[in-house]
Amino acid sequence: MRLTVLGSGTNVHPTRAAAGYLVETDQLLLFDFGPRTLMNLIKVGVDRHRLRHLFITHHHTDHFADFLPFFFDAVFHAKFVAPRPGLTIYGPRGTRRLFGTLVKVVPGFSTAPFPITITEPGDRTIRIGHTRVTAGTVVHRPRLHCQGYRVAHNGAVFTYSGDSEYCAGLVELCHGADVAVLDCSFPVQRPGAGHMHAGDCGRVAREAGVKRLVLSHFYPVAERYDVKAQAGRTFGGRITVARDRMRIEVTRPSLAVPRSR
Predict the structure, then answer these.
(1) CA distance 143 to 209
(2) pTM metric for this prediction
(3) pLDDT, tens digit (0-9, with 9 covering 90-100), for 42-70
(4) How many domains does the chain have?
(5) Which of 55, 222, 243, 250 could bridge across to 218 with cysteines, CB 3.0–4.6 Å?
(6) In the chain, how long is the greatest CA-to-CA distance?
């Protein structure tokens, strides 16, 4: 399994794209599609016309806005260049209504010459080829259903929090993960509602028994502090500060090559 970070920042970050994470197993899976992540997808050399599975964590636009230029491009390409496979969009409650409306009302979208499926899996596991993806509810904002995701393939496990506070659901989702990408929006000194600070990320990783913690989704204020050291006060495992277009191999411990932190 391979993870590519397409966006490690937020909508207001001056140097990082917003949220987006590409996971390659026997499938090509994209988790969130925030602003500027489409360009990073192109830059890392992945054929976007092969993308068949898009997972959305929640409906704030910094997590799905690049779906619009992506889908416009997909329709044009399929009409005038070459056919492409169908697209399935997975997400929390309200995804059918939101994305179904976008596909109907944005000019040109409703004429897509490929099938589009929009589904709300709820808190359960689905199988795509030889890959299992589990959606789990996390706590972010009142009256907004938010999901994290857990991907299992060939014995390796990757988890992604989406936007989340520290919560029991997130700890459960991350249990025993080889790599966990967590919402590290803020430093300990400047916490913010609806998100974790670096200390919270370390707490989740320790309680879940994560092998490698990847801090991501930074607001600009987080850049002014050593968030890696802050997470390390609670979590003794390997910690990585995400950067755009970073690639990480997600492997079982028995296959992993030890590296220094």
Answers:
(1) 30
(2) 0.93
(3) 999 999 999 999 999 999 999 999 999 99
(4) 1
(5) 222
(6) 55
Q: Is residue 261 part of a domain?
A: no
The pair phi, psi for residue 41, each rounded to 5°, is: -60, -40
Domain that includes residue 61, residue range = 2-249
Q: Who's near 219: CB < 8 A, 6+ residues apart?
A: 9, 10, 12, 13, 185, 186, 192
Give the HSE-up count for residue 90: Cα atoms under 13 Å, Cβ half-sphere.
Answer: 22
Least confident of 16-25, 39-48, 128-137, 249-258: 249-258
- Bridge-based pairing of strands 28-31 and 20-24 is antiparallel
Q: What tokens appear for 6 in the block? A: 């397409």
Cβ–Cβ contacts within 10 Å for residue 259, how many?
8
| Within a domain: 260 | no
Count other C-beta atoms under 10 Å from residue 109's C-beta: 16
Structure tokens at 86: 């169908």
